[in-house]
């Protein structure tokens, strides 16, 4: 597997479910114990599989920008309904 960007969608039953960025239609499911570091839901990451270990690189800047975009959208929606 080459290095590809994903967004962590959810954690369930010891597995991390990532959606491929940017379309988020394709998913990859990885056993948490096979990852080299912990991640949290919403993190944008780059994943590279080497010898059965998934090397996760958290893209902090992209993650923060995505969270800010979502917060701005939520704020606009809240003000629209007032």
From TrEMBL:
<dbReference type="Pfam" id="PF11213">
    <property type="entry name" value="DUF3006"/>
</dbReference>
<protein>
    <recommendedName>
        <fullName>DUF3006 domain-containing protein</fullName>
    </recommendedName>
</protein>
<dbReference type="InterPro" id="IPR021377">
    <property type="entry name" value="DUF3006"/>
</dbReference>
């Amino acid at each position: 597997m080459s290095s590809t960007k994903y967004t962590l969608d959810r954690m369930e039953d010891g597995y991390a479910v990532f959606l491929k960025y940017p379309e988020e239609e394709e998913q990859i499911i990885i056993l948490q114990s096979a990852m080299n570091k912990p991640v949290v839901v919403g993190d944008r990451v780059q994943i590279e599989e080497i010898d059965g270990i998934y090397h996760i690189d958290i893209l902090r800047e992209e993650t923060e920008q995505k969270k800010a975009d979502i917060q701005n959208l939520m704020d606009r929606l809240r003000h629209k309904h007032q």
